[in-house]
Amino acid sequence: MRFTGRVSGVLSTALLAAGLVAAPPADAAPAAPCSGGRVLNVVAHHDDDLLFLTPDLINDLANPDVCVRTLFLVGSYYSRDGVAPHPTDADKYAYMESREVGDRQAYQAAAGIPGDWQHAPYSAAGVQATTWSLGDRVSTVELRVPDAAASNDAGTMYKGQLWALYADNQEAWPIPGADAPVQQRLNREQVLAFVQGVIDDYQPTVINTEDPSADHQKSSMDGNFHADHVAATRLLVGALNRRGGAWPRVTYYRDYLARESAPNLDGATQARKQQIFEAYCPYDDEIYRSGSCQPDYVDWYQRQYYADSPWRGYYLWPMSYGFEDPKLDQRYRVVNRATGLYLDVSGSSTADQAPLVGFTPTGNPNQAFTFKAALGGWNLRPVHSNQCLDVTGSSTTAGTPLIQFHCTAVTINPVDVAQMFSPNQAFRIRGDHTNGYTITNANSGLALTSPAQTGGAVTQAPTAGTPDQLWDLVPA
Questions:
Q1: What pLDDT was estimated at residue 290?
Q2: What is the pLDDT of residues 432-472, one digit of tens each?
Q3: What backbone torsions phi and psi does residue 106 show, to the nearest 5 degrees?
Q4: What pTM was estimated for this model as a whole?
Q5: CATH class of 331-475
Q6: Is the preceding omega at residue 282 within 30 degrees of 0, hence cis?
Q7: Which of 465, 470, 466, 448 lies closest to 457, judged by CA?
Q8: Helix orientation angle between 9-18 and 89-111, rounded to the nearest 10 degrees
Q9: Where are the domain boundaries for CATH 3.40.50.10320 in the chain?
Q10: What is the pLDDT of residues 294-310, one digit of tens each?
């Protein structure tokens, strides 16, 4: 079954009868739309909003004075053998649409608004999408970039694309639909412009989104995060920086990693959160089996945590817009503040395991590095070799020298949506132009440290904030 056009009012009546939609009081005076604010949620998937942004989301939906719009960047066009097999293209499309309908039904249950959802074409910055509206204050926007879980679908052109678009500027091909029928091929700049256009169009007073630092957290080493969540949020942040001017209030929410902290919602709030999620659940056959929702989501019924600044760790994430430097895909010379020595691939070697040394400036490409996005931080790639900065033997021992090594491919586990990566090739950056930058290895947590003499090995050492660990990034 394909869910196009209106959602039947029969379901709204059923929700009323089940007590999931509250009928408005007969004598209630209508409030001015949006007098309590305009909330824009930006997430990757259908259910991210219900699991991670709730109960805040359902409280906003329940408030008759607050307008709520959610931008979903990803469409769930995929199958998983043995879990939710959707063997044909029509099956995949139906599954994607079913999850979209489920999310709308959860919104309707939380908002207490009877009636039908209306859909229409939507466009921002020349990018086509679909908008769905319930009354005059609740709406969604569907872009439908294919889900990362689709990467394992042999023979389909719709593979997981959001992370690749964000990190490597690979084209994304959103799934066409009745309101956006033309196959689009979008690059990073187009998606940034689209997200900016949604913001300009809606003029939110509040933006809620996911955790941009999930891949930087300690437990992310075990793959306990989803790259699409990180990509969606960083694209939002990039769009805000691209837009310029004052930001609306932005709140970041921890996603899967919230379960590593103690439950923090009271019993009544947990029950309400579960109730609303269960309005969505029957539309997702990955989690609705034998007539009930699987118990996998209890951890998130019990929790809602913010990804505040201390949690995010004050890191500089790979971004096209925003930070002074570094910027995504740009080239830099990495110069130590204590010694003035440049990070250098010894002898301009292109071989694996060539050492990184401190050297006087030569202007050669073995002293220039392209800064790329990596799961867990940044890849620093010598321009002359296009290898990756690495730590010898993936060591976590202080004093271990740095090397270049061929860049290790990313593998996606399609069942657990766990992102496996090579943290010894990922580096995290803090700092600014004025005070210098500290560069630490994601695997060891140790900082790049300059030798005292020309030609000496660059090593890793415990972060001390000393000048031999402070670096300037000079555009190359």
A1: 85
A2: 999 999 999 999 999 999 999 999 999 999 999 999 999 99
A3: -65, -40
A4: 0.89
A5: mainly beta
A6: no
A7: 448
A8: 50
A9: 9-312
A10: 888 899 999 999 999 99
245's CB contacts (< 8 A; 6+ apart) are none
Q: Are 137 and 112 in contact (CB under 8 A)?
A: no
Topology given in CATH for the domain delimited by 9-312: Rossmann fold (3.40.50)
Segments of the chain assigned to CATH 2.80.10.50: 331-475
Is residue 451 within 8 A of residue 457, CB to CB? The reply is: yes
Output the six-digit token pair for 174: 């959103």
Q: Residue 434 and residue 438: Cα distance in Å, rounded?
A: 12
Name the average pLDDT for the chain: 88
Quote the tokens at residue 133.
Answer: 């509206």
Report the alpha-carbon distance of residue 94 to residue 53 in Å, rounded: 26
